[in-house]
Specification:
Elements lengths: L2 E8 L7 H17 L4 E3 L17 H20 L6 E10 L4 E10 L2 E7 L11 H4 L8 E4 L2 E7 L1 H4 L3 H6 L6 E6 L8 H15 L3 E5 L1 E4 L2 E4 L3 E3 L5 E4 L6 E8 L16 H19 L5 E4 L4 H14 L4 E5 L7 H14 L2 E4 L3 H11 L3 H23 L2 E2 L5 H6 L20 H16 L29 H5 L19 H13 L4 H6 L4 H13 L1 H4 L28
Parallel strand pairs: 1-2, 2-3, 7-8, 8-9, 15-16, 15-18, 16-17
Antiparallel strand pairs: 1-14, 3-4, 4-5, 6-7, 9-12, 10-11, 12-13
Helix pairs in contact: 1-2, 7-8, 7-13, 8-9, 8-13, 10-11, 15-17
Length: 565
């Protein structure tokens, strides 16, 4: 009988930061050893960060990554951890072609003891690995104290055949996988179902360790888990936080003993947390300590400000009210209330004097005059950003981006866009959820996310309200002309978002949308708006991907699109 204790080290890494990533590997290896683990497994490309994109093509970086892996092995042994088997993701080199490989190395006894190269290189959606890496061509089974451990990297278990099919013939005791699987709403059950199929295929438990943290427009949600050979859930780690879990394998047992299984998250909390973590890590990895944004009193800027407060604290949020001659008193009051609720810094910068000065020279009317107001506001936001070292955040949502309902160099200005992948109706839903969470005791910064693994409830909210109720309930308006409402230019959001979801995320064409039951006028309007706005979307700042198809990496129309079927 062989008993092996595995440590699942779900950590947040930074692309290119070999030193910091190596230090974190060392720290978690020590923690794993203290709890008597024999094997510790980290996420995909742990040492280099993931995805490293074209950085992998730099020979000097690959050499530095190899040197750091060798250093890690030596340091682990020097610290008395030579007996520990440490599985780390990194970049390797195919010496026959001098091209990079997506590699797992196992550090043991002071050396790089074993290695395995990823076979299946994804080339869809957010992935570009087929262009960057060369594929591995052999399966690997590790012998650890008599236990046979088959290994795989992420996409290797998503595709039929390949290394998993080979491992099914090699009588393994467990399949150990390291993963860099980005977050997507509703995807957690898909991973679980996949692992259940692979466990049945190899007739052994499957260990699934996933990366956590934000990297540019991707968010990795963690949620590492273990399933038994019969598909039973044995262990599940929390989402969106760093975590060290333990799984005890008994090679003679017919069924393995379950460990801690963290409950599923509320779906709204899940998406909200993904957006916050994307912003939080983008700021941390680009060394921003605070954000600035325009506060209009509307729901979009209110939700973005709330997310920013949860990410870095309300005291690090600079809100700017920029009222015009068309701004309602209610909107100005709502903006002030929101800033007070989250403890943000709040300035008022009226734009009418600047607008009048521009108009004296330019004499604009119609849409040009409306857009001028937005661009003046963009200049003010960027002035705050430049002068105070703050990250300017854009507040546009997916419905607006889809239809081009934004102003280039105006409300589209910013370095990051936390809600760009949320349809307008989803913005309302998440705002209501955040207020429910506030009423239940979740203060500012109390979200369960990287950096708050200890569960600090955050700074209490006065009255248990974060987002002003009026911002949620009032009819949305850009307030760029008297009495303006979004519905003057767009279908009602309840209808619009249903068409957008079908057209964008489910790739339904005109005939499909009509078959879905949408009327011809609405279909024609929405398709025309979406297709014509591609040039704008390509200039919009990046933001966290949380749906199956996000604008940017996932879905791009030609800039000139004549296809309407």
């Amino acid at each position: 009988m062989t008993q092996i204790r595995f440590a699942l080290a779900q950590i947040d890494t930074c692309v290119g930061d070999l030193d910091a990533n190596a230090d974190k590997i060392m720290r978690y290896s020590h923690l794993a050893a203290q709890d008597h683990a024999q094997v510790v497994v980290f996420p995909e490309m742990t040492l280099t960060g993931y995805p490293i994109e074209d950085l992998a093509l730099r020979r000097t970086f690959r050499q530095a990554a190899w040197d750091k892996a060798s250093w890690l092995a030596t340091e682990l042994a020097a610290d008395g951890l030579g007996d520990l088997y440490v599985a780390v993701g990194t970049v390797g080199t195919d010496h026959a072609s001098d091209k990079p490989r997506n590699r797992m190395v196992v550090l043991h006894d002071g050396v790089v003891w074993a290695g395995y190269d990823k076979h299946f290189l994804p080339n869809y959606g957010v992935f570009d690995e087929f262009r960057i890496f060369t594929a591995g061509d052999r399966s690997v089974v590790l012998d650890v104290d008599g236990a046979r451990i088959g290994v795989a990297i992420c996409e290797d278990i998503w595709q039929d055949g390949g290394p998993v099919a080979e491992l099914a013939k090699r009588d393994i005791d467990v399949l150990m996988t390291m993963n860099g699987s980005p977050y997507e709403e509703g995807k957690t059950h898909v991973r679980h179902e996949l692992a259940v199929r692979r466990a049945a295929e190899v007739n052994a438990p499957v260990i699934y360790v996933n990366q956590v943290g934000g990297q540019d427009d991707l968010v990795f949600d963690g949620g590492s888990f273990v399933v038994d050979a019969d598909g039973a859930m044995l262990l599940r780690s929390p989402m969106f936080m760093e975590h060290l879990s333990f799984f005890d394998l008994d090679t003679d047992a017919e069924r393995q003993r379950p460990g801690e299984i963290v409950p599923d998250m509320d779906p709204d909390e899940e998406v909200y947390t993904a957006c916050v973590l994307g912003l939080k890590d983008y700021m941390a990895k680009n060394r921003f300590r605070g954000v600035c944004l325009g506060l209009s009193g509307g729901i979009d800027s209110a939700l973005v400000a709330a997310m920013a407060a949860d990410a870095v604290g309300g005291e690090n949020v600079q809100g700017i009210s920029m009222p015009s001659m068309y701004s309602s008193d209610g909107s100005k009051d709502d903006a002030a209330d929101l800033a007070a609720n989250i403890g943000a810094k709040y300035d008022i910068q009226p734009i009418e004097p600047l607008f009048s000065a521009y108009q004296k020279q330019l004499g604009l009317d119609g849409v040009a005059a409306e857009n001028l107001q937005a661009r003046i506001r963009g200049v003010i936001v960027m002035a705050y950003s430049n002068s105070r070292g703050l990250l300017a955040v854009a507040t546009g949502n997916k419905s607006e981006l889809a239809c081009g309902y934004s102003t280039i160099y105006g409300d589209a200005v910013g370095g990051y866009a936390p809600i760009k992948d949320l349809l307008k109706t989803r913005v309302w839903e998440l705002s209501r959820w955040r207020n429910r969470a506030a009423a239940a005791g979740m203060g500012i910064g109390g979200l369960h996310v990287v950096g708050n693994e200890q569960g600090d409830p955050g700074k209490p909210l006065s009255g248990g309200v974060m987002i002003p109720v009026n911002s949620i309930e009032k009819a949305p308006s850009a307030e760029l002309r008297p009495g303006q409402k979004d519905s003057d230019s767009l279908p009602e959001y309840e209808l619009l978002d249903k068409v957008l979801a079908a057209y964008i995320e489910h790739a339904h064409g005109c005939a499909d949308l009509l078959a879905d039951g949408f009327d011809e006028k609405t279909v024609d309007t929405v398709m025309r708006l979406v297709d014509r706005a591609e040039w704008k979307r390509r200039q919009y700042p990046l933001g966290p991907k949380v749906t199956a198809l996000a604008f940017g990496r996932d879905r791009r129309l030609p800039v000139t699109n004549a296809f309407r079927e």
